[in-house]
Amino acid sequence: PKEQFDPDPNKKTLVILGTGWGSVSLLKNLDTENYNVVVVSPRNYFLFTPLLPSCTTGTIEHRSIMEPIRNILRHKKAKVKYYEAECTKIDYQKKIVYAKDDSEIKGDTMETEIPFDLLVVGVGAENATFGIPGVREHACFLKEVGDAQKIRKQIMDCVETATFKDQSPEEIKRLLHMVVVGGGPTGVEFAGELQDFFMEDLQKWVPQIKDDFHVTLVEALPNVLPMFSKQLIEYTESSFKEEHIQIRTKTMVKNVTDKYIEAEVQNPDGSKVVEKIPYGLLVWATGNAVRPVVKDLMSQIPAQAKARRGLEVNEYLVVNGTENIWAVGDCAVANYAPTAQVAAQEGTFLARLFNTMAKTDAIEAELRDLSAKQATANPDQRKVILEEINERQRQLRRIKQIGPFSYSHQGSLAYIGAEKAVADVSWFSGNIASGGTMTYLFWKSAYLSMCFSTRNRILVFFDWVKAKFFGRDVSRE
Ligand code: FAD
Ligand code: NAD
Question: What is the ipTM for the molecules in this complex?
Answer without folding.
Answer: 0.99
